[in-house]
Amino acid sequence: MNARVDSESAAPVREREVVERDGILFAADETESEYRRRWEEEAAEDHVRSAIASGSTGPPDYETLTAKVSPLWKRVARGSSYGTVLEIGSGYGRIPLYLAREREVAWSSYCAVDISQTMLERFVEYRERFAANADSALYPICTSADDLPLEDDSIDLAISSAVFLHMGKSFVARALAEIARTLRPGGRFAFDVSFPNSWNPPNLLPRLKPQRLRPPNFMKYWTRSEIESLLRESGLGAKANGFVIEPASYALLPKRVGPVLIPLARRVNGALGDSPPLPDVLASSYSVYSPGLLE
User: Is the separation of the CB atoms in 245 and 228 below 8 Å?
Assistant: First the structure.
């Protein structure tokens, strides 16, 4: 394999299941889809805006690339070190850039999985430019999250940021089962802002949109009990010795309805604080992670 590998640790990638083109590893049996085409087009147009849903972006400096990082990543234990990290929907590398510089997290190898070749090319570029654990092994893998070309029990930490919310529920179930297969017993995981809450009032309006008008990456909505079942049935909770489900943020009012801004929505939502009543109603989305990962 001629992928960029900078350490002598055992490769977690199943070489027989990938092919390399221009430094990117592709699943040998990968097929095209409307979902894949949508993300590739967005990445080619503006990869930063596609990843962080920003209305406009500045030059691709460190501050721009890490402009939207949820509070969960700011709680990852400072100075922690891992063997092999797997990121699902890695994009251009926003989370590892932040973890390496701001939390001083280290790893020996990194499996960056994304369905966009453009995103993975940017990942390689920014990793080198900003020296995010540049001496570690890097495996940029262009593949679907529900069929990972990785060895069993080869991953020490699995992460994902605001990616599963765009995927169908059956697909997410398959993806988590794959993560569970590849995670070593006792390994850790964190998926931030990944499960929009079905019961949250601002989430009710977009759910009224007719099915035929929804794009392939339309958000999917979950209840807490559905997330609990997902983590148990996938085997991920057991593999990681448990899990924590917590609201990523709270909201009572939508920020906008279509193009119309809702007056005082930000102020009202901000006034809810960190521990409002009825948290499983006011939670706008949920994050999940394994015990012991955060400070």
Answer: yes
- Condensed to tens digits (0 to 9), the pLDDT of residues 50-69 reads 666 655 556 788 888 888 89
**Block means of pLDDT (10 residues each) for the chain, length 295 residues?**
44 94 90 74 71 62 87 95 97 95 96 94 93 91 96 98 93 98 98 97 90 83 98 98 97 90 94 95 97 92
The residue among 229, 28, 90, 235 whose CA lies nearest residue 152 is 235
Domain 15-196+219-245 grouped into CATH 3.40.50.150: yes
Q: Whose structure tokens read 């596609």?
A: 50
pLDDT, tens only, 104-129: 999 999 999 999 999 999 999 999 99
| String of DSSP letters for 74-141 | GGBPTT-EEEEEEEET-TTTHHHHHHHHHS--EEEEEEEEES-HHHHHHHHHHHHHHTSSTTSEEEEE
Which string of b and e fits 148-161 if b means at least 16 CB within 10 Å? bbbeeebbbbbbbb
Its sign, for the CA torsion 235, 241, 242, 248, is negative
pTM: 0.90
Q: Please tell me the distance from the alpha carbon of residue 106 to that of residue 84, in angstroms, as a whole number.
A: 10
| Phi and psi angles of residue 168, each rounded to the nearest 5 degrees, phi first | -60, 155
Q: Is 173 helix (H, G, I), strand (E, B) or coil?
A: helix
